[in-house]
Amino acid sequence: MTGKTRVGEVGRTARKSRSGRTEATRKPGDERWAELLQVAAKTFADKGYSATTLQGIADELGMLKGSLYYYIRTKEDLLFELVRSVLVLAEERLAERVPDDGPAVDRLEVLVREHVIFLIEHLTETTVYLHEADQLTADRRAKLPVHGFIARLEKLVVDGKEDGTIRPDADPHLGALTILGAANWVYRWYRPGGNSSPEEIAEEIARMCRKSLEA
Amino acid sequence: MTGKTRVGEVGRTARKSRSGRTEATRKPGDERWAELLQVAAKTFADKGYSATTLQGIADELGMLKGSLYYYIRTKEDLLFELVRSVLVLAEERLAERVPDDGPAVDRLEVLVREHVIFLIEHLTETTVYLHEADQLTADRRAKLPVHGFIARLEKLVVDGKEDGTIRPDADPHLGALTILGAANWVYRWYRPGGNSSPEEIAEEIARMCRKSLEA
DNA sequence: CCTACCGATCGGTAGG
DNA sequence: CCTACCGATCGGTAGG
Questions:
Q1: Which of A82, B18, B44, B195 is deepest in the core (most CB within 10 A)?
Q2: Which long-range contacts (CB under 8 A, 24 or more apart) does A80-83 make?
Q3: Taking the domain B10-73, which CATH number applies?
């Protein structure tokens, strides 16, 4: 309303002829695009994807609904982009913080802890992912950069049975799914300002997960 | 389509003057009402409450959309009734299957096991509850017969710390929430026809929850 | 339960 | 990004 940059038709043109272009599309690096994603994430997390209207998002941004189509082609673009980016970010984070060697049960504990910390630090986006991703059409869902988190957990259980740090009777698949539930459930109840810090919460959940499978 | 009972205006009248009436409202005990709930549950579980249209439900029932209003006043009635009834049923089930005495950690294990079995046996309805209940308006949500499941879990952890069957360093609140997540997460992945039976799944999850807190 | 209907809103578009 | 617009559909209602 006050000092917004006007670019006129540039964006639209850029989107239409996206093949051999020097000037970038408006999206990446643009401040307004980031705002749009932020508002969309908050609204999707609060009311759900389907109950969210583009009119509501536009209102919050102080623009007209039709103007949103300068940034997106469909409503689903917003959901997809949010889910995609949080997956990429999580992947990076876990890659740099979870070691590749050492006793499997230790690695599992670290993995769970870092997973929970990430979840809490990106609560809005992870909520959108965990609660709304199934609203994506099948073809869009197939294009998500899923990083096989369950497979990773399963492998840790298998490794742990081999290195003797995890109970021999543990079920890798069921175990992985249950650990995942214990960790992911955080998005259903965590709200800033509670008694425990994110680190304390992550620590406690990780400890419980460890104990649940430890030899 | 073939042998459906026609009652004409009776139902509508019955609904409008619900005060001092001998003849019951159409709803309770009516076969068609049960069908409606069933279709609604399946659709809400599959596509989400908000993405579900009354037109779609009516189509599946072979009636016109407007006719649904013979049974309901608003779309939310369907969601509320589904969530309400599954809560009541769960309460009953757990009351009759989980003992009130014995070592706390044992009771906790049984509680989790029965909870998971119930979840799986009523997967559609529990999915609606766990994934869609927050689509209810605040006042409707306040009218739900919530049976304090978390509080019950918390108390078991506290009891267990007293009777020595649960680790002294366990956090009752965090512990209860984490157990709840491990158990509830089942609705996100369980599908009939898998490798493990509901009982095996429930048994394994319950065991893990036990171990996660056991002294 | 059907007929017939409504206001509101939805996602989305053409053109600038 | 705005103007101006559209077809489709939404939940819901009056009356029988």
A1: B44
A2: A80/A136, A80/A140, A80/A143, A80/A144, A81/A37, A82/A37, A82/A40, A82/A41, A82/A44, A82/A125, A82/A128, A82/A129, A83/A128, A83/A129, A83/A132, A83/A133, A83/A136, A83/A144
A3: 1.10.10.60
From the list B171, B174, B196, the residue facing A174 with the nearest CB is: B196
Which nucleotide is closest to B8, CA to C1'?
A: C1
Q: Does the domain formed by B83-213 have CATH 1.20.1250.20?
A: no
Q: What is the pLDDT of residues B18-64, one digit of tens each?
A: 322 223 346 655 889 999 999 999 999 999 999 999 999 999 999 99
Tokens of A32: 């307004």
Q: Give the CATH class of A82-213.
A: mainly alpha
Shortest CA gap A131–chain B (Å): 8
Q: Which two tokens stand for residue A26?
A: 């408006």
Answer yes or no: do B178 and A214 touch at CB < 8 A: no
Q: Supply the pTM of this predicted model.
A: 0.88
| Distance from the A205 Cα atom to the nearest Cα atom in chain B, whole angstroms | 7
pLDDT tens for B165-179 read 999 999 999 999 999
- Asked if A215 contacts A165 with a C-beta cutoff of 8 angstroms, the reply is yes
